[in-house]
Structures are given as C-alpha cells and as structure tokens.
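Appendix B, example 12.
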Amino acid sequence: MTTLEILEIVPGHPAISAVVWLLIVTVLLYIARVPVHRVLLALSTIIRSTLRMAGRSVTLASERLIDRNREVLLAAGREVAERVVEREFERIDATVQHYLAHYPSLQRDLHEALTRLNNDYEAGKEVPPAPPGWIKAVESVVKLPSAGDPMVANVLNEICESVKKAQNRAIEEYRKDSHQRHVLLRRMLPQWRRVQHTLSQVDKTVGSLLDRAKSIDRHMDDYRAIVARSDRAVRMLSSSAVTQFFISSLVLVIAMGGALINFQLIAYPLSDMVGGNSYLHFGLTAFKTADVAALVIILLEVALGLFLMESLRITRLFPIIGALDDRIRTRMAWAFFVVLLVLACAEAGLAYARDLLALDDAAVVGLLVEDEAAAQAGDGRWIATAAQMAMGFILPFALTFVAIPLESFVHSARTVVGILAVAVLRGLAFVLRVLGNIAYFGGRMLIHLYDLMIFIPLWIERSAMSRRRPASATSTRADANAATGGG
C-alpha cells in the first residue's frame, strides 16, 4: 500500500479524505493554540533579548574603543606637540648661541665703531679760518696821513704783496683741510656700513627670535588644549591623523613604484649571476632566486635607510636607537651610510651590467637575423647606460626617505583603524537591534499566521461566546427583576 492509500480515510474518495484530515489538523492546531502561542512568544522574546544584549555589549565595546582611541590620539598628539616645542626651543637655543653668545663683543665693536665715527666727525668739522692779525696793522697804516709820501706807498705795496701771499697760503691750507675732511669722510663710510650690517644682523636675529616665540606660543596653545583633553583638540588631531594617513599612503605608493623600478633594474643582471634557472621553494610555491635576491637587496636598503633616519633622530620608530649615547649613535649613522653607499654603488654596477647584457642579447639577435644595424645597436647607448647607472645609484638613497612617511603612516593608522573599528561596531550594534526587533515582531506575525490557519474554530468560538454573553445578561436581569418583585 502506498502512503496516499494509507492516508485515505474514505477509500476511493481522496477529496473527502483530504477534507477530513484538514478538519483533524485544524482541531489539533486549535487545541494546541495556547501552548504554541506561548512557545512562539517566548522564543521571539528570547531572541530579541539576546540580540539586544549583544547589541548593548557591542555598544559598550564601541564606547570603550572610543575612549581608547581618544587616549591614544591625545597621547600621540601630546608627544608630537612636545617634540615640536622641543625642536623650536632647540632652534632658539642655536640662534642665541650662534648670534647672541657674542653679544658682548658685538656691543664692544659697536661702541668702538661709534667712537671712531664720533672722532672722525669731530675731526671733519669745517672750522672757519681766524682773521689774520695784519688787518689791524693795515687799518692803522691807512689812518696815517700819506701826503704823497713815497715811504707810505712802499709800505702799502709791501702790505699788498703780503696780503696776496697770505691769501694764497690761506686758500692752500683750506684746500688741505677740505681734502683731510674728505679723507675722514671716506674713512667713516666703511664704519657706517659695518655698523649698518651689524645692526641688520641684530634686527634679523631678534626678528627670528620673535617669530620663533610666536610659533612656540601657537604650539603651546595646542599643547594646553591637548593636556586639557578638549574636544577641539581631539577633532583637530583626528583630522590631522586622517590627512597624514592619506598623504603618507600616497607617498608609500610612490615609493613602492620606485622600489619596483629598482627591482626591474637589478633583477635581470642578478639572474645572470645566480643562474636564471635557480628557484627557491616555499611550500608549494617556487620563486626565482634572482627575484628573491633583488627583493632582499631592496628591503635591506629600506631597513638601512630606516636605521639611518633613526640614528639621525629624524624618525622615532625605535626609541632604543634614539636613547643611545650621541657618539655611538653617530658611529652607527656613519656605518649605515657607508653600507648604503656600498649597496648604491653595487646597484650602479648591476645597472651597467644589465645594459651590457641587453646589448649582448641585441647583438646576438642581430647576428642571427643577419641585421647589421641591430648588431651595432649599442654604438650610441652610452646615454642610456649613464642614466641607468645614475638611477641605480640614486634609488637606494631615495628609498632611505621612506622611513618618514612610514612613521607617519604607522602613527596615523592607529587612529584611522580605531575610527573604522568604532564605525563597524556601531553598525553591528544597529544590525543586532534591528534583528532583535525583527525576531520579536516576527514571532508576533507567526502567532497571527497560526491563528489565521485555524480561523474557523476561532470564529465558531467567538460566535458561541457572543451568544452566551447576551443569554447570561438576560438571565441576570430576570433574576434582578424577580428579586425586586419579591421585595
């Protein structure tokens, strides 16, 4: 017998059997209505409560992450502000040591220069010549009665000659005095220029100190805001961190492009040195030995550049290097620079070898195809060779400066990742709350769907209850009237 034959209550009438079974299922569902309602309501409530608790936990985690991001951001901003203020004070100290440390000698030089100028000015004053003493003698002689006396005429002639000679001597002395004054004025000119230069240096130094002081005031205002943990400082630091993240990412992408060019520049000659058919196996993957060697050289150059920047205290990714003694740190910087210089020279040699190998390949191809022009293609390639050698020498030093955007990327990535994590947690909390509400109202909807499937028994039940209520109300009123009449 098949399953349909077993389920047939009335043999030969499947429709009637289906109706009977539908009635039986409906009655069973009607009998189990209250427990099923309770189960669905309890299940939806449990799911909703669980999801709401999970959402609350995620919200608390996001709040803790926000506090942590705030602490990290303020700590990083405080460190940067302290470094900037420290650097500004170092610059002021260097300026003071370079210019104002010799201020006593400068003041003495100015005083001596002004004294010499004053002396030269006093010596260069034009003093009017004193009137000659013979003027009174001439006046006395003029007052004498001449009466055609030849003696008086001779005296007057002698006086005239003496006046002429005295006049010539006075003019000559005046010219000498003027020349001396001009010499003194020429001597004053370099002194004036020296004083002017010294005063301009002093003005420039004082102006630089004032600018530094204003810059320190601005940085100190930012530092006070950071120490006060103000919201403005947090917003400022967050914006700065996001900006630095994108800028440093762009610079790192550019540096990766330079590293790729450097890789292509040295991989080919290394394949001729270590063997083009040599492979290194890492699990199921095999890599060419030449490619691995070129990559190791580039990474070594980047690491040396990073350590060189750390030794020069330009970056602070490794505080232990910056905390070393100055002599040891200087020696380490020179050692890193020398090794980097050797690698740069080696890369320049590899670039030259690459050009030679390319010329040999071109010559072989030209000989195989009997093309004389292709065989002599290397006659004018010295410019390309020089350019490749220059690139091979410069790129290692260019990769040295990757340490600066790398430090900025590392410090700003913490803030950016924290902001993204907070956004993800908030989104997850919202999704959990939505799912909890969906589960709760979904349970309500299932209850209503359950009632919809057994709407016939429910309708019969409501009809019976509605009829019973008027009958009970009528009997109640009859009993009340009887009681009232009896009374």
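The mean pLDDT is 76. Residues 231-401 form one domain.
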